[in-house]
Every structure is written in C-alpha cells, then in structure tokens.
Inverse folding.
C-alpha cells in the first residue's frame, strides 16, 4: 500500500462534480467554488431576470397634459435602444405596436441602477427611475410620483397586474420636465416559488435585493412565499448598495457563506462581494466574469435537463452539488487515511517479528491499486442534483412496447 489514494481523494471528487455540474447547466470555476457553495447559508436573489422571466411588457402609459402617450413611447424607445437593459425590448415592442417609428438617439449615457439619457430630436431625454428623472429635468411637466401612479392605474384598468406590482419608468425632457411614465410587468418564473422553498428546506435564508421600487419587490416576495417576520425583500438599491448589503449579510451569517444570484451589470459588484457569485446565463459578460458559478439554463452534453425555477433552481442545484462533493471528499480522505494507516505499516513489516504477518510485493501492489480504485469509484458515485428529473424525463420519452 501507499498514500496515493490520499492524493486522489480531492481532485477526483472535484473533477466528477464539475463534469456533473456541466451536464446540469452549472459552470463551476474550480474546487474552491464547490467548497464555498457547500458552506452557503444565505442566498440573495436579484429580481428582474433572475426571479422573473426577464421578458417585461409595457402594461400602462401616462402622459402630462402637454404630451401624449405616443410622445412618451417614442422618446422612451429611442433612449432605451441605446442600452442593454431588459426593459429596452419591452419599450421598443410597445412603440412598434402603437405604430410609432423610433427616432435615432445621439450622445447616449447610462447611469447604472438609475437610467439612461440621450439626445432625441434635438432634445435631451432622460428615461429611468422616477426620482432620478425628476431630479435631472425638474417637475415642470408633472411630478414623477403622480405620473407613475397614473401609469400603474392604467395597467390595472387594462387587465395588467395590480398597481403595486408594476415596475415604473419615467420619461423626462430637459427644459420641459417629466412628460410621462410607463408601467411594466414581468412574470415570476414558473417553479421559482418551489425553488425558494427548496432552498429554505436546505437550511438557507433567502432574501431579495433589487433596484426596482419597493412595492414591486414586495409583490414578488409575496408570490415567492417570503412573507414571514424575518423575510427580507429590499428595493431601490443601486449596484454599490447591493454590494454593501451583501457585506452586511456576510457579517451576520455566523461563519456561513453568502451567495448572490443575478443576471445584470447592476449585480456585478454584489457578485464580487459575495462568497459565491452566481450569474444567470443570458445577462452581461461582465456579470458572468464576476461570478464563480455561471447558471447556463440547461444541461450541456447529451442529456437534456433544465432546472425548475430557472436561475433560482440552478442556484439550489449548485449548493446541493457543492455539499455532495464536499461529503465525497471527506469520505475519500477518511477511507484513504484509515486504509493507509493500516496498510502502510503492514507492508513495511511491522507485524512480521511478532506475528509473522507480512505482504509480498505483489499483494502490496494489489492493495495499493485497490485503495486508489476505491477512492475513484466512490467519487463516481457522487449524487448529482436533478438525477430524479432526468430519470423521469427518460421514462416519459421512452418508447413503450406493444
């Protein structure tokens, strides 16, 4: 026997876990990420594009007396066309549906977490968070709060979500003030609530951090079942605010790790601040670069697998995989250490003088090989999150014999 198995205990489990993760749509950047995932006790979720589908639609429009809905849509679509924000496609689709041609925007600027501005038809137009727009252009046309409330009420009247659940975007023109507002709605991903319950059943504390307005965040948290006295769902956060909140959660976690799950550029600072940053695929490259785990959405390779709940479900998969991998590493180390504590002295002839027991070279070589094979085999038996889902899918698609 020899201590070779000790050297195989960790890398074989890590290799099997990262390969299994890829088949489940989890891109894991090394063994340290697996270890950190296993220690996670708090999971922070971004709202837009992570909990929700990331496919918002305009459900309500309101304009001041000096403007019409068409002006609001046209200006908003022009400015949003210069950004990669999830709301951009929704505004463009609403403008197209209304028959409005989107004018060209120039000199565009983006303020992360707030909005964007550009020169449209010779006017400086600001589109984004209501208070930011109002501070940029003033309230000569109408107050952002009043216009936002009107847009949300229009949404409810048109069969959209309740006013409190809407996200609001205001449109302002320099020298004219706030000219209108848009109400937008995005559906919570199917299975997201079940995935949150799964995280809680695993002992996780789940919080929601978003740059959206507080009523919209509260509505999503309610749909997820985060309604207890200890539930945390915070809106109105800038990128740096999210990172600071993550640091606060880490300080309160009593030695446990904090995972942040997000998809937008606004989430990048929080992903870096977290013990484990998890980026939902389809977001910005900078977000994926800041993350230790990339949630690809569906499995890679021959097996088709998609975790229920999208990024939320895959975050649970990653944490479970990390725990299972760490368990295998401990099993491997325990087995290899115990085996070699017995085998190496016997092979060295410790028992020969007293008991006449020894191992010939062939037996010692076989024992050495057995210890290594046992470690590798144990690693290959790693339980992968979603095995039951894949098995069920195979059974459902298997041809039946007549």
């Amino acid at each position: 026997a020899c201590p070779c198995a000790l050297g195989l205990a960790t890398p074989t489990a890590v290799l099997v876990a990262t390969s299994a993760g890829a088949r489940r749509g989890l891109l894991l950047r090394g063994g340290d990420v697996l270890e950190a995932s296993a220690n996670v006790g708090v999971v922070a979720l971004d709202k837009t594009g992570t909990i929700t589908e990331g496919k918002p639609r305009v459900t309500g429009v309101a304009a001041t007396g000096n403007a019409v809905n068409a002006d609001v849509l046209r200006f908003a679509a022009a400015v949003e066309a210069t950004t990669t924000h999830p709301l951009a496609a929704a505004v463009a689709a609403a403008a197209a549906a209304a028959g409005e041609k989107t004018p060209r925007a120039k000199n565009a600027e983006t303020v992360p977490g707030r909005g964007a501005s550009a020169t449209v038809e010779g006017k400086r137009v600001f589109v984004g968070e209501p208070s930011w727009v109002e501070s940029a252009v003033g309230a000569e046309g109408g107050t952002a709060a009043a216009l936002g409330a009107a847009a949300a009420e229009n949404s409810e009247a048109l069969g959209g979500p309740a006013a409190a659940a809407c996200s609001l975007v205001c449109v302002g023109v320099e020298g004219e003030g706030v000219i209108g507002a848009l109400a937008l709605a995005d559906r919570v991903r199917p299975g997201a609530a079940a995935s949150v319950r799964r995280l809680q059943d695993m002992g996780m504390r789940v919080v929601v951090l978003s740059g959206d307005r507080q009523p919209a965040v509260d509505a999503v948290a309610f749909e997820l079942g985060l309604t207890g006295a200890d539930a945390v769902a915070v809106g109105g956060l800038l990128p740096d605010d999210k990172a600071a909140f993550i640091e606060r959660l880490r300080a309160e976690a009593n030695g446990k790790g904090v995972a942040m799950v997000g998809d937008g550029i606004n989430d990048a600072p929080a992903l870096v601040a977290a013990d484990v940053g998890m980026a939902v695929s389809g977001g910005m490259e900078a977000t994926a670069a800041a993350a230790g785990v990339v949630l690809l959405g569906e499995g890679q390779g021959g097996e088709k697998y998609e975790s229920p709940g999208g990024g939320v479900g895959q975050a649970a998969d990653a944490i479970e995989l990390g725990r299972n991998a760490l368990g295998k590493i401990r099993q491997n180390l325990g087995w290899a250490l115990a085996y070699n504590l017995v085998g190496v002295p016997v092979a060295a002839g410790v028992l020969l003088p007293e008991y006449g027991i020894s191992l010939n070279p062939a037996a010692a070589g076989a024992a050495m090989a057995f210890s290594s094979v046992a470690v590798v085999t144990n690693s290959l038996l790693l339980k992968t999150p979603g095995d039951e889902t894949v098995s069920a899918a195979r059974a459902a698609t298997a041809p039946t014999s007549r």
The mean pLDDT is 82. The two ends are 54 Å apart (CA to CA). The chain is about 50% helix and 20% strand. The first strand starts at residue 26 and ends at 28.
